[in-house]
C-alpha cells in the first residue's frame, strides 16, 4: 500500500490528509473500488483494475521517452512505427519500445527544415513525406537525410503546410493555410493548385482526408468543408458544406477540425468534428445530424474523430474522449475518473491515428493517449433514478413523504411554474451521469439534457401529465424506466366542464335567436314586397282605367252637350206636363252623365299635371252658403234637415272658386246618398289663426274603421249592400282629396258605423303657400254667380 500511495498513480483518489502508519480497514465495493481507511479521518479509494490507457509522454532523464510531452502530431507508418512531433520528429518502435529522435538543427541543411511538423505520410518507395511550417521535407530513412521542397520558394510564408498525404495515385496532396489545396507530382516535381471556393480569394486549407472512394475531404477553419473529386490534375467536382442558420440539417459550425468517412458498419456516413458539436453527414440524403453535450458528449468542442474496428466513433473533446456506440446510438465518455492519465488535449493543432492493430492514439498538450477500445471497461451497472426535489416558483414544496414516493401531484392552474430535481444512483464519475425527461401529455419525445439534474416548466395548461425522467451512468448505460410522477393541473372555475356546457348553451341560443330573427325579417321583407307589388299592380290598373275613361269621356261630351241643349229647348217650349216630366228626366240624366264625364276629365288632368289653379282672394262665406242652399230643395224632398253654420260673415281666402265648388258639391252629395230619411246634414265653417275649416257632418250609415282608409282611393266603394244600392263611381272623394291638396289643404274623415260621418277640409289662409303664377289679381267677371240649383237623383 505504501508503494501504491507513493506514486502519483492516477488510479488513486485521495480523500484527506492521512497518517499511513496504521490501516484501520480495507473494503471492496461492487464497482471494484478498494476503500482503505486509516485511524483518524483518512480514507482512500483505489481502483484495482488494470489501467487501459497508454501514455506516450516525456519522462525526465529518460532518453527512451518522448523528448517533450506536448505532442502535435501522431501517425503510424507501414512498418508499425509510430511517429510523433514534439520539438522535432520522434519515431517509436513498439516492438522493442525504443524511441529515435530527429532533432531540428538550423545549421544542418540535411535535417528538418522546421521543428514544427504537422503531418507525415509514407510513399510506396519507403520515403517519408513530412509537412512542416516551412515547406515539405522528404526523409530517406536509410540515410537519415531530409530534402526540402518548397512550392513557393520566393515567399516562405506561403510554405506553411497544414497537412501532406500520399494520394492513391502516388502523388502528394498538400494543404496549406495560404495556398489552399495543391497536388505535388513527385516524379515531375510539379505543383498543381486548385481553387475550391471561387467566391473567395483566400484559399485556406486546414486538413485533407481521402476516403476509400477517392473523394478528397478538405476542412477549413472559417468556411466549412469541401468534398472534391480531382482527375488528371483538374477539378472534376466540388461540393461545399457550410453552416446555414436557416437549415437545421446543415453543418453545425463552419470551424471544422477533422473529417473521416466510416467504413465498418455505417458505410454511408462522414463524421465531422467541429468547434460546436459532432456532425454525421448522411451521404444518401446529404443531411447533417448533430450531437452535443445534451446527447452525452463531455463537451461541444470536438478536436479529432476516429472509427474503431467495431465501427464505433471515437472523438477527442476538449478534456475527455467520447464514443458514439454505432449499435445503440448512445454516447458515453471516458476521462480522468476512468484512469485517463491527463486531463485536456490542449489547443490545436491536434492529431490522431488508428494503428494497424486497432489502437487509437490521440495527441495532446500532455502527451499522447493510446488505448484499445475493447479494453476500456464499461460500467454496466444500471443506475436507479430518484426524484430528489419538487419546487413551485423556485421554492421547495413540503410534501407528506419524500418526493420519490409520491405518485400524483395536483396543482391549481395559477401554480403552473414548477421544477424537478433528480439523480441517478451511480457514484463512479457521477458527474458524467446523463439524464433525459419528458412531460407526457405536453411533449411526448424524450428531451436529452446531458448532465443537467434539474428541469423546469412554466405556464403549463390545465390538464393531466406524466413527468418521466430517465438516466444513465458515467458510461451511458441507461435506466430506461427511470422515475415518474403524475401531475394534474386543475382548471380555473371559468374553464371547468360545467361552465363550458353553459357557454355552449348560451352560444347555441344566440345562434337560434339570431336565426329566428333573420327568418322574421325575411318574412316581413317578403310581405312588404308582395304588398308593394300588389299596390303597383293596382296603381297600374287605376291608370289604365283612368286613361280609358279619359279617352271615352271626350267622345261622350259632344253628344251630351247636344242632348242637354236640345232637351232644354224642348223643355222651354213644351206645354204638356207629362211630356215635360219625361224631358226633365232626360235632362237630369244627361246632366249627371255630364258631371261624371267632367269628373273623369278632371282626374286625368290632375294626373297629367295639367290641372292649374286660378286663384284670387274672395269672401268664401256667400259662396259656401250658396252651395249649401243649392241642396236645400233636394234635402226637403228627402226629408233631411240641412243646416249651414258659420260664426263669421266674412272669411277672405285665396281659392280657386271652381275647384272649391267641386270639393263642396262632392262632399255634400255623399251624405245625401248615405243618410236616411229624417236624418240631418250640417255644414260648418270655422276660422282659425291660419286656416279655414269646412266641416260636413251627417247622421248617416257611417263607414267601418277597416274601410275608412280606402275611401279616398279611386274607384273605391264600400262594399255593402246599402252602398251598392246607391249609384256612384268611387271617384268623387279621390278627386276631392286631390283638389284639396292642390290648395295645399288637408281632408280628414271621422266616422262611426251607424251613427254618421264627419269630413273636415282644412284650407290654409293667406297666399304664402301658393305659387305666384297661380294667383290672379283682380276679380274675374261673372265668377261670383251662384251656381244653378243642382239636380241630383
Ligand atoms: P261614390 O261616387 O261612390 O260616392 P266617393 O269617392 O264619393 O264615390 O265615395 C266613396 C265611397 O265612400 C262611397 O261609395 C261610400 O261607400 C263611402 N262614403 C263616402 N261618403 C260617405 C258618407 N258620408 N257616409 C257613408 N259612406 C260614405
- What's the β-strand tally? 48
Rounded mean pLDDT score: 86
* Hetero groups: adenosine-5'-diphosphate
Give me the number of helical elements. 8
SS strand fraction:
25-35%
Relative helix content: 10-25%
**Biggest β-sheet description:** 5 strands, mixed
Shape: elongated
Query: Structural class, from helix and strand content?
Result: alpha+beta
Low-pLDDT ranges: 6-10, 785-793
Cα(first) to Cα(last) distance is 156 Å
Q: What order do the strands of the largest sheet run in, or round the barrel if closed?
A: 35-41-40-37-38
Our Rg estimate from Cα atoms comes to 61 Å
Structure description:
It is a single chain. Strands 35-41-40-37-38 form a 5-stranded mixed beta sheet, with no helix packed on it. Strands 43-45-46-48-47 form a 5-stranded mixed beta sheet. Helix 2 (497-573) crosses helix 3 (577-608), helix 4 (620-629) packs parallel to helix 6 (657-674) and helix 6 (657-674) runs antiparallel to helix 8. The chain has 793 residues and is α+β, with helices and mostly antiparallel strands. It starts with a helix and ends in a 29-residue tail after the last strand. Mean pLDDT is 86; it is low at 6-10 and 785-793. It has 8 helices and 48 strands. A hairpin with a 5-residue loop joins strand 6 (73-76) and strand 7. Residues 670-671, 674, 698, 700-701, 703, 711, 716-718, 723, 728-734, 757 line the site of adenosine-5'-diphosphate.
Amino acid at each position: 500500500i505504501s508503494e501504491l500511495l507513493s506514486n502519483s498513480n492516477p488510479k488513486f483518489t485521495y480523500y484527506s490528509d492521512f497518517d499511513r502508519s496504521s490501516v484501520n480497514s480495507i473494503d471492496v465495493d461492487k464497482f471494484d473500488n478498494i476503500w482503505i481507511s486509516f485511524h483518524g479521518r483518512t480514507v482512500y479509494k483505489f481502483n484495482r483494475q488494470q489501467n487501459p490507457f497508454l501514455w506516450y509522454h516525456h519522462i525526465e532523464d529518460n532518453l527512451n521517452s518522448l523528448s517533450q510531452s506536448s505532442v502535435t502530431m501522431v501517425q503510424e507508418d507501414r512498418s508499425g512505427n509510430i511517429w510523433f512531433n514534439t520539438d522535432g520528429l520522434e519515431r517509436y518502435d513498439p516492438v522493442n519500445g525504443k524511441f529515435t529522435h530527429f532533432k531540428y538543427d538550423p545549421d544542418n541543411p540535411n535535417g528538418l527544415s522546421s521543428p514544427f511538423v504537422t503531418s507525415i505520410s509514407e510513399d510506396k518507395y519507403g520515403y517519408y513525406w513530412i509537412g512542416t511550417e516551412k515547406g515539405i521535407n522528404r526523409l530517406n530513412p536509410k540515410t537519415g537525410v531530409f530534402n526540402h521542397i518548397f512550392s513557393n520558394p520566393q515567399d516562405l510564408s506561403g510554405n506553411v503546410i497544414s497537412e501532406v498525404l500520399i494520394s492513391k495515385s502516388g502523388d502528394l496532396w498538400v494543404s496549406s493555410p495560404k495556398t489552399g489545396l495543391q497536388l505535388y507530382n513527385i516524379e515531375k516535381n510539379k505543383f498543381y493548385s486548385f481553387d475550391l471556393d471561387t467566391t473567395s480569394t483566400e484559399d485556406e486549407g486546414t486538413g485533407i482526408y481521402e476516403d476509400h472512394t477517392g473523394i478528397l475531404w478538405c476542412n477549413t477553419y472559417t468556411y466549412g468543408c469541401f468534398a472534391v473529386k480531382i482527375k488528371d490534375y483538374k477539378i472534376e467536382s466540388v461540393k461545399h458544406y457550410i453552416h446555414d442558420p436557416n437549415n437545421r440539417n446543415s453543418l453545425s459550425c463552419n470551424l471544422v477540425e477533422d473529417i473521416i468517412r466510416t467504413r465498418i458498419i455505417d458505410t454511408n456516413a462522414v463524421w465531422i468534428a467541429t468547434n460546436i458539436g459532432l456532425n454525421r453527414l448522411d451521404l444518401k440524403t446529404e443531411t447533417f445530424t448533430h450531437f452535443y453535450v445534451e446527447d452525452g458528449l463531455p463537451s461541444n468542442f470536438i478536436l479529432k474523430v476516429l472509427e474503431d474496428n467495431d465501427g464505433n466513433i471515437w472523438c477527442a473533446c476538449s478534456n475527455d474522449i467520447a464514443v458514439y456506440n454505432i449499435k445503440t446510438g448512445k454516447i458515453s465518455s471516458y476521462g480522468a475518473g476512468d484512469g485517463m492519465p491527463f486531463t485536456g488535449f490542449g489547443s490545436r493543432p491536434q492529431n490522431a491515428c488508428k494503428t494497424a492493430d486497432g489502437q487509437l492514439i490521440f495527441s495532446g498538450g500532455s502527451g499522447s493517449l493510446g488505448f484499445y477500445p475493447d479494453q476500456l471497461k464499461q460500467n454496466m451497472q444500471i443506475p436507479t433514478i430518484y426524484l430528489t426535489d419538487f419546487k413551485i416558483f423556485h421554492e421547495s414544496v413540503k410534501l407528506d413523504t419524500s418526493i420519490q414516493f409520491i405518485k400524483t401531484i395536483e396543482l391549481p392552474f395559477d401554480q403552473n411554474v414548477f421544477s424537478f430535481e433528480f439523480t441517478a444512483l451511480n457514484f463512479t464519475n457521477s458527474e458524467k451521469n446523463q439524464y433525459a425527461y419528458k412531460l407526457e401529455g405536453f411533449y411526448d419525445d424524450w428531451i436529452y439534457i446531458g448532465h443537467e439534474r434539474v428541469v423546469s416548466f412554466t405556464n403549463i395548461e390545465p390538464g393531466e401529465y406524466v413527468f418521466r425522467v430517465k438516466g444513465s451512468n458515467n458510461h451511458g448505460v441507461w435506466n430506461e424506466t427511470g422515475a415518474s410522477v403524475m401531475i394534474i393541473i386543475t382548471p380555473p372555475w371559468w374553464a371547468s366542464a360545467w361552465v363550458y356546457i353553459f357557454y355552449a348553451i348560451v352560444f347555441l341560443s344566440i345562434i337560434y335567436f339570431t336565426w329566428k330573427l333573420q327568418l322574421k325579417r325575411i318574412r316581413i321583407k317578403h310581405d312588404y314586397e308582395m304588398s308593394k307589388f300588389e299596390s303597383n299592380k293596382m296603381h297600374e290598373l287605376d291608370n289604365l282605367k283612368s286613361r280609358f275613361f279619359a279617352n271615352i269621356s271626350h267622345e261622350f261630351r259632344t253628344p251630351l252637350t247636344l242632348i242637354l241643349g236640345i232637351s232644354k229647348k224642348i223643355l222651354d217650349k213644351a206645354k204638356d206636363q207629362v211630356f215635360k216630366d219625361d224631358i226633365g228626366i232626360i235632362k237630369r240624366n244627361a246632366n249627371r252623365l255630364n258631371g261624371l264625364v267632367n269628373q273623369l276629365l278632371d282626374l286625368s288632368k290632375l294626373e297629367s299635371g295639367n290641372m292649374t289653379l286660378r286663384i284670387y282672394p274672395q269672401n268664401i262665406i256667400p259662396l259656401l252658403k250658396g252651395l249649401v242652399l243649392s241642396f236645400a230643395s233636394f234635402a226637403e224632398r228627402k226629408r233631411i234637415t240641412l243646416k249651414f253654420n258659420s260664426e263669421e260673415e266674412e272669411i277672405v281666402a285665396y281659392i280657386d272658386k271652381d275647384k272649391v265648388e267641386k270639393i263642396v258639391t262632392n262632399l255634400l252629395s255623399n251624405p245625401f246618398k248615405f243618410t236616411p230619411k229624417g236624418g240631418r246634414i250640417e255644414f260648418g265653417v270655422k276660422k282659425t289663426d291660419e286656416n279655414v275649416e269646412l266641416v260636413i257632418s251627417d247622421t248617416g250609415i257611417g263607414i267601418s274603421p277597416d274601410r275608412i282608409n280606402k275611401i279616398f282611393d279611386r274607384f273605391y266603394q264600400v262594399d255593402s249592400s246599402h252602398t251598392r244600392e246607391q249609384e256612384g263611381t268611387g271617384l268623387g272623394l279621390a278627386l276631392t282629396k286631390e283638389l284639396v291638396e292642390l290648395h295645399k289643404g288637408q281632408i280628414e274623415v271621422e266616422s262611426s258605423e251607424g251613427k254618421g260621418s264627419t269630413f273636415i277640409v282644412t284650407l290654409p289662409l293667406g297666399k304664402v303657400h301658393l305659387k305666384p303664377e297661380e294667383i290672379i289679381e283682380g276679380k274675374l267677371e261673372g265668377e261670383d254667380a251662384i251656381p244653378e240649383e243642382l239636380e241630383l237623383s
